[in-house]
Amino acid sequence: MSDTSPSGPSGSADTSGSADPTGSADSPGFASGPDFDSMTRDIAEVPAVEVIVTVAVNLMSAAAVKLGLTEEGDKYKDLDEARKLVHALAGLLDASATEISSFHAAPLRDGLKSLQLAFREASLVPDEPGQGPGEKYTGPVYG
Predict the structure, then answer these.
(1) pTM (two decimals)
(2) Which among 80, 79, 83, 138 is positioned nearest to 113, based on CA atoms?
(3) pLDDT, greater one: 44 or 61
(4) Spacing of C-alpha 99 from chain mean position
């Protein structure tokens, strides 16, 4: 019996320990990926403001895709999903307003307003002012 790993279809040894043919680190079977203890330590070092801003940017990006504002346009457009994402972003920004500085909050609020206006423009039947996504938290949004 040999101490070497079995050869894959190309004759090279598969050392990833993964059933995923890409061998990516984020696949569930990746044997040498980071353990939960090191990930916990890493997230513990990140300031809360950074986590909040990162989540907000991710919500903004996802909403932009669902509004069809990317190069792919209508390919991923889904206004129901966009409404949920914009509403969640508005709630996050409203809830964290006192926790993050205006340095961080101002551009996020501007991005939120842009998304709210884009939603209104993309809707076949626009919501009444004050009834659009996130306007529960921001108040009515006008162009």
Answers:
(1) 0.71
(2) 138
(3) 61
(4) 20
